[in-house]
Specification:
31 strands, Rossmann fold, binds molybdenum atom, alpha/beta, 4 domains, binds ligand MGD, Dimethylsulfoxide Reductase, domain 2, about 15% strand
Length: about 750
């Protein structure tokens, strides 16, 4: 895609002074106390605390300041001096607050008191903890456990998550969806089926020895910036990084390390990707197919000369399904591949050649692959690609799905799952003397469907901003009010606290930096870390997440001497002992290893080439479609990508500066290339709306978006998440994992947009 002069594009590198300015802006605005700086110096280090932002690895040989722009923003956001207490709620009805922007809600600062919704005044009023627990307990006892949702957003610790899942099961429910259901659930389902483990296989050291990395749909510069350090080191030593992304993301182009005085002073930037392919959204299956076709062709030539490219010994010994896959690749023509991927044969061959020449290959990916109707096939194609060269289970090779929330992977490890087969229920039954529910619980999409049908009567949210993060926002907000009970545990006010059931509580908790005991998290590379910061709590009325779970359990469940909640709250080490007993293979000597530099590795069978799959081997698969979006082309129809900026953490909007994409001052933009603008008769600065083109008869729309020329492939547009969530149909999700397909949403542009409707 040619980039013309006045197309919005940031010319600077990622990192560098821009990232320092980004941090300082938040530092000043949050009225940050001086202790923030001390806290930041302890971030992501042994004996320090695990960042509250993303799940990227915390290396053993850490940098003096092992945090990034976004980790610093997240810490300052939690440690803000602003407070949102009873005075604030006395002044505003919820009807009024529902008109506020997300940004302004969270700007009020930390929640300070437990609050009960008062229908007579349409306000939240303070209550005490005992009153809240006993009222919620009474409601829960009166409900069918199958009609209650226990949602978790991926930042709660292993200890809190273990207790929370135990509470749900003791109560009688497997309805334990978490943010992973909107995120990497595609990974958890696909990798489990194809290689026998639901997580990535690489470890940190692999980045130091791989020859090539293939990057699909992961925006490192914004979303996991500390990953830029090993990437920069790899690029410098000659490792080839090949990127596939419809958007030219700055962090994958160039980087100045803000930790390096010489780079900062000289402005010397490192080129990260040696090839950057602007694949069409949903075009990855075809793109990877193109790489495989080239690899097979080079292998044919090599074999004629007595050499090889494809690792047939590995395929023979370790995989299943190769023949069908090979036939499929050979039978698919280049014109079909070019059409579906939006990339030329020449470009795909150039990318494939990097694979051919590399002995050790890593594949990295994020939401650009997982959030599609055929997201499973996206991930499965990446597995096919790696298997061709025996690139799983050798040093310097493997799969690297980059997880989002700081403990989203770990929560799944310790029992937060709606899928009973993933949880050692017999073990729990024996340890705690009860009969856990055995039937499948509801995931996020199913929970939403249940709210709409009236089957779901209560929602308990341990963190997150559920109604803002899910698809089909308007319909879901209406459904929400039909519930009997909603309880939200949070640090800051958000939209999900303002739409509520008949009975509603908002319970404020300690942030991770304020806990007085060690907590643990699992990072993206399966290493487990202790975390301790011991900062003064934002208010005397806060409880830890674990204490809230325990308080609720005591108020809801009959006493069980094997679950002494009070002792667990008093000493989290006891909870870790229980985690070790429940998962002895993963957590041996848990309490002795809390501050292992770099974390302690949970282990990974696929990395050892032990395949816990149905066939006992790693699976090659033939994709069910060449295009991952699940809908066809039609005149005026675009594939909408919903984007994150580097000035947000999910639905928390820090500010309106998407520095690395050159978009400043607003998030109400429609990004589109100039050729498409001309075809649609649009001029820069026009204000337009988007409507759903999902052909399901439901009208969905977002308005007030400013047309902004941007170097995207044809046939697609981009705008921000969560503003565009009203356009994502609930039925539009990955076929296997039900992860909402937020990266290619069918829309049409309408020219009558007026003021932004938020
Ligand atoms: N600053 C910041 N950091 C975050 C977060 C945040 O909101 N802000 N959120 C956290 C969470 S929970 C998560 S899950 C992660 C998310 O981190 P990522 O996985 O990076 O997710 P996104 O930014 O949503 O999208 C990733 C990329 O996919 C590209 N893309 C879109 N469609 C396609 C496609 O069809 N094919 C390909 N190849 N690429 C495509 C987009 O252009 C974008 O660059 O980040 C975590 N870290
Ligand atoms: N269209 C579209 N939709 C998407 C996505 C997309 O790319 N496109 N991405 C999806 C993804 S990957 C995800 S993970 C979801 C996540 O979306 P969210 O639910 O927004 O995730 P969080 O960042 O966990 O939620 C933010 C809230 O968490 C609360 N919080 C902060 N710290 C704490 C804490 O320590 N404890 C507690 N209890 N609460 C705390 C604050 O009140 C804050 O308002 O959104 C999904 N939705
Ligand atoms: Mo996520």
């Amino acid at each position: 895609m040619p980039k013309d002069d006045n197309t919005v594009h940031y010319e600077g590198p990622s990192g560098g002074w821009g990232s320092v300015r980004g941090m300082m802006r938040i530092y000043a605005r949050e009225l940050s106390p001086p202790t923030v700086l001390k806290t930041l110096s302890e971030q992501n280090k042994p004996q320090g605390f695990a960042c509250v932002s993303c799940a990227w690895a915390k290396p053993a040989d850490y940098h003096p300041a092992e945090f990034c722009e976004n980790g610093a923003k997240a810490t300052m956001w939690e440690m803000t001096s602003r407070r949102c207490g009873p005075d604030f709620f006395a002044k505003h009805t919820l009807a009024e607050l529902r008109e506020w922007r997300d940004y302004d809600l969270e700007q009020q600062g930390r929640l300070t008191h437990p609050l009960r919704y008062d229908p007579a005044t349409d306000r939240y009023v303070p209550c005490n903890w005992d009153e809240a627990f006993s009222a919620i307990g009474r409601e829960l006892r009166a409900l069918d456990p199958k009609s209650v949702i226990f949602y978790t957003s991926g930042r709660a610790s292993l200890e809190a998550a273990y207790c929370y899942s135990l509470l749900a099961r003791l109560y009688g429910s497997n309805n334990l969806p978490d943010s992973s259901n909107m995120c990497h659930e595609t990974t958890s389902v696909a990798l489990k089926k194809l290689i026998g483990v639901g997580v990535g296989t690489v470890v940190y050291q692999d980045f130091a020895s791989c020859d090539a990395m293939f990057f699909f749909g992961q925006n490192t510069g914004s979303n996991s910036p500390r990953f830029l350090h090993p990437l920069q080191e790899a690029a410098k030593r000659g490792c080839k990084i090949v990127t596939f992304n419809p958007v030219r993301e700055k962090g994958l182009e160039t980087f100045i390390n803000p930790q390096s005085p010489s780079e900062m002073l000289t402005g010397h930037e490192t080129k990260i990707s040696c090839q950057y392919h602007q694949v069409k959204p949903s075009g990855d299956i075809a793109a990877i197919l193109g790489l495989c076709k080239h690899i097979l062709a080079r292998d044919d030539e090599a074999r004629a000369r007595g050499g090889k490219v494809v690792d047939r010994d590995f395929i023979e010994q370790h995989t299943h399904g190769f023949e069908a896959f090979e036939t499929f690749v050979r039978n698919t023509g280049w014109s079909e591949i070019e059409r579906a991927s939006g990339l030329s044969r020449r470009d795909l061959e150039a990318a494939g050649q990097v694979y051919v020449e590399a002995e050790k290959v890593i594949a990295v990916y994020g939401m650009g692959l997982t959030q599609h109707v055929h997201g499973f096939d996206n991930v499965a194609m990446l597995v096919n690609l790696l298997l061709l060269g025996g690139n799983i289970g050798r040093d310097g090779t493997g799969l690297c799905p980059v997880r989002g929330h700081s403990n989203v992977q770990g929560q799944r490890t310790v029992g937060i799952s709606e899928k009973p087969e993933l949880v050692p229920l017999d073990k729990l039954a024996a340890l705690y003397g009860f009969e856990p529910p055995r039937e499948k619980g509801l995931n996020t999409v199913e929970a939403c469907e249940g709210m709409r049908s009236g089957k779901v009567k209560a929602f308990f949210g341990l963190g997150g901003n559920f109604v803002r993060a899910i698809p089909e926002r308007e319909a879901m907000e209406r459904a929400w009010t039909g519930m009997r009970l909603t309880v939200q545990v949070a640090t800051k006010l958000n939209r999900s606290h303002l739409v509520h059931g008949q009975v509603a509580y908002l319970l404020p908790c300690l942030g991770r930096t304020e806990e007085s005991q060690v907590l643990t998290m699992e990072d993206s590379l399966s290493c487990i870390h202790g975390s301790l910061a011991r900062r003064a709590p934002a208010s005397d009325h806060l409880l830890s997440e674990l204490a809230i779970v325990a308080g609720l359990a005591k108020a809801t469940l009959p006493p069980n001497p094997r679950v002494p909640w009070d002792s667990w709250v008093a000493d989290y080490a006891i909870v870790r002992d229980r985690i070790e007993e429940t998962y002895p293979d993963l957590f041996p000597h848990f309490n002795q290893k809390l501050f292992t530099p770099g974390g302690f590795y949970k282990g990974n069978k696929a990395r050892e080439r032990i395949w816990k799959t149905a066939s006992g081997k790693a699976e090659f698969t033939v994709p069910t479609a060449l295009v991952a979006c699940g809908f066809g082309e039609a005149p005026g129809r675009y594939r909408l990508i919903t984007l994150r900026s580097n000035d947000q953490f999910n639905t928390t909007i820090y500010g309106f500066s998407d520095r690395m994409r050159g978009i400043e001052g607003t998030r109400d933009v429609l990004l589109i290339n100039r050729d498409e603008m001309a075809r649609a008769g649009l001029a820069e600065g026009d204000v337009v709306g988007l409507v759903s083109d999902a052909e399901d008869g439901v009208s969905r729309q977002v308005s007030g978006l400013k047309v902004t020329p941007f170097a995207l492939p044809d046939g697609c547009v981009a705008s921000y998440y969560p503003e565009c969530n009203p356009l994502v149909p609930l039925s539009h999700h990955d076929q296997q994992s039900k992860t909402p397909a937020s990266k290619a949403v069918p829309v049409r542009i309408v020219a009558q947009g007026t003021a932004a409707h938020r």
